[in-house]
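Aim 2, interim progress: modelling of the flavin mononucleotide-bound target.
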Amino acid sequence: MNTTAQQIADLRKSYERAELNEDASQADPLRQFDQWLTQAIDGKIPEPNAMTLATVGSDLRPSTRVVLLKGYDARGIVWYTNYDSRKGQELAGNPLAALQFHWVELERVVRIEGRVEKTSGQDSDAYYASRPLDSRIGAWASPQSQVVSGRAVLVANAAKYGAQFMLNPPRPPHWGGYRLVPDEWQFWQGRKSRLHDRLRYRIGPDAGWIRERLAP
Ligand SMILES: Cc1cc2nc3c(=O)[nH]c(=O)nc-3n(C[C@H](O)[C@H](O)[C@H](O)COP(=O)(O)O)c2cc1C
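Predicted structure of the complex, ligand included:
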């Protein structure tokens, strides 16, 4: 081991950049998210749209991976992927999932939970068409999450599909978007002395959002 337990124990940081309180936060969590994401983008945070997606398999074993947010509005949070991947298979069996953004430089985390649905074929087509050619071919070339005998398989697949489709690959049937429809949001702002701010939004009986503070 190159790192000692003491070195790890000594890794700590005081969070003092900002605060999040009931008065200054938005009543609608989507607006709060929009504000924080905009600040992350404007602040040149690396990969501000990278989010961890957690799913649960039919064996109740959870798994996570990073995906890129590609759209968000009142309908939900959208990303694109391979429907046959591990996450795709897990979502087919259990559509409940969670997303997490960690904007380290802003000392902020957003957690989102809800039910996942596929985006329309039209939406997936439109986003697929907007991708660079090598990414479009890559969606054909990579049997995502499956064991391959070596990298050469992927390179050969890319060459094969590149020759087959030339400049106009169609969207693969196994590739498209998912949308998480949030029923719970949580916004975390790091504060001094570990007294962090946490605001949770959940849907109340009248379908409006209830905002509550959680202990850090
Ligand atoms: C910054 C970053 C962004 C990523 N974005 C995506 C994405 O948008 N879609 C995707 O399918 N995989 C994306 N990946 C790869 C996934 O993290 C993961 O390796 C892949 O989706 C397979 O996951 P699974 O086997 O759990 O289904 C990204 C990885 C990183 C590090």
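The mean pLDDT is 97. The first strand starts at residue 50 and ends at 56.
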